[in-house]
Amino acid sequence: MTNTSQTDPLLGRLIDGRYQVRSRIARGGMATVYLATDLRLERRVALKVMHSHLADDTNFKNRFVQEARSTARLAHPNVVNVFDQGQDDDMAYLVMEYLPGITLRDLLRDYGKLTPEQTIDIMESVLAGLAAAHRAGIVHRDLKPENVLLADDGRIKLGDFGLARAAANATGTGQALLGTIAYLSPELVTRGIADTRSDIYAIGIMIYEMLTGEQPFQGEQPMQIAYQHANDPVPKPSAKNPLVPPQLDDLVLWATDKDPEARPADARVLLDKLYEVERAIHSAPADEGLDATRVIAPSANDALATTVLAPAATPLAAAAPQFAGPAAQVRSEATATDAVSKLAAVSRHRRARGWWLFTALMLVAGLAAGTGWYFGAGPGALVAVPTLMEKTADAATAALKDVNLVAKQNPVYSCAVPEGRVAAVSPAPGRLVHQGSTVTVSVSRGHQPNQIPALGGVPTSEAKQKITDAKSLVGKTVVQEFSSTVPNDAVISATRASDNSDITGGGAYTQCDTVNLVVSVGPVPNVVGKPLAEAKDALIKAGLAYGQGQAKYDDNVPKGSVISQEPADSGPVKPGDTILLDVSQGPQLFPVPDVTQMTPADAKAAIEKAGFVANVPTTFSGLPIGVFANGMVVVTKQDPDSSTQQKHGTTINVTLGLKG
């Protein structure tokens, strides 16, 4: 049944940081089933992964989740358990109980048809699981041999509740018919309506197929088969297999009646009837022939009379002739004496045989009583292993003692079960075992102590491998941050999820802890000095957002370029964070004062008061200014002139001349 593809991308993959995919088991129309290892509970599970091309279909995804919810509502030994359901990226998955073995379809393919006894045994388990589903208000809607699992250890379980719906009211498909056409009930074909009686119809078709080796309706096109389901009665299985008892014929015809009202109301009703059929088949008396000769004892009135009854096909023997005279009388008396002797011998033999039969009957009765006591109340009685998961060790021991079972504690490390609670039970809960049997109760010791290696600066993929190799879990969300000191895609820091303690450099921890990683995406782009448009593009390309900071005058940064960014690389910056940019308005300009016609001293004072540097000559025509009469030398020209604005510190050059 296993068909592993070496090119399957899921093989070897760790799903959701917990389930290690080992091999592919089977592939169906909606999902693929893999054998996987649950690293947290250290057990093999069946991982059902929905096909990627159906992930965007809301109906299929809802149906997939519905299977988990439907099965999770059932707790029955004949229903496959669902442990978990989740989504890893765009991949939806279910985690189910793994049952090594075959399906009923595989069994029919190998053997063709089954005996009535084999059919009854399998159907009792199937109907018991289906009865639990019907009792919980669930209609399976996809019953077929492919969904009956026959485990190697003898367990029989019903699986694949992907099409299950609530059975409180009749349910319609609302679209194309769901389920396999060979097992669809007439009301599903004609009206698209399904309830518990639709499951019963499918069970009847399965019983027919198990007894005869073929389905009752055949056709080249699905619509031909559907038409027969809607219009033709299902024939008796004995028409194909004469060894089928009439009780099973009647059971199949009852379950497959065209009118849903005439069928059993649910699986419990059909299961009770199957038990009756089983008892009727096993208790049918064997054909008994007449004794060849029956001797009847003489009556009190005729001690010599003997009656011999021969078989019906043999005529009665003629009466012995009568002889006259003494010799004849002697012969007659001798004959009478012989008859009396024979009659007495027969009577003694019958009395002896009666005592022997009575003694044998008492022995059989005693043996039956002893056997009944042994298997009913004695050591051979079967009891179900109770549910003990997550009970305390003492409570589990007491629960086993209450049903005459012996507890054997086995301390184990567990990732999921608190210390001192039951982590596993063997045999599994629900299994029937003899009274006095030993049940191994695995009691959790909590998480196993361990050492975690240093993770700081390690590439992300290598860090994750180190964590899983240590039987721990990687946090579902890996936080990304910018860093100028740690390379891109390497670990900046690692913390234990339970207490947020730092374990970047390694240290003590326990197995199964979740480790959260902060991973570098490289440094924050440095956009200082770049034009604003270029700076925005660089931030967006790095996965950051732009925020407008302040507009500032700056003598060194050109107008329209970035003066500074905040936060810089010093603080924790994550993808999507906003970087505030301060933009330069260029240098600040001030008006140049008009100093023409001022004396050199006044001009210098005015220029310096305005924040500029005055370049005023100390001589005029080669002579000191003081030689000239006071006020005769004035400023006749300045550069830059008063019509301009300049930044503070600009030098203003003046030219002197005589006052006109």
UniProtKB/TrEMBL annotation:
Residues 19-275 form the Protein kinase domain. Its EC number is 2.7.11.1. It is an enzyme of class 2 (transferase). The keyword Kinase applies. SUPFAM superfamilies: Protein kinase-like (PK-like). It catalyses: L-seryl-[protein] + ATP = O-phospho-L-seryl-[protein] + ADP + H(+); L-threonyl-[protein] + ATP = O-phospho-L-threonyl-[protein] + ADP + H(+). Keywords: ATP-binding, Kinase, Membrane, Nucleotide-binding, Serine/threonine-protein kinase, Transferase, Transmembrane, Transmembrane helix. It comes from the Bacteria. The chain crosses the membrane at residues 355-376. Residues 518-585, 586-658 form the PASTA domain. GO terms for molecular function: kinase activity. PANTHER family: MITOGEN-ACTIVATED PROTEIN KINASE KINASE KINASE 20-RELATED (PTHR43289), SERINE_THREONINE-PROTEIN KINASE YBDM-RELATED (PTHR43289:SF34). This is non-specific serine/threonine protein kinase. It comes from Gryllotalpicola koreensis.
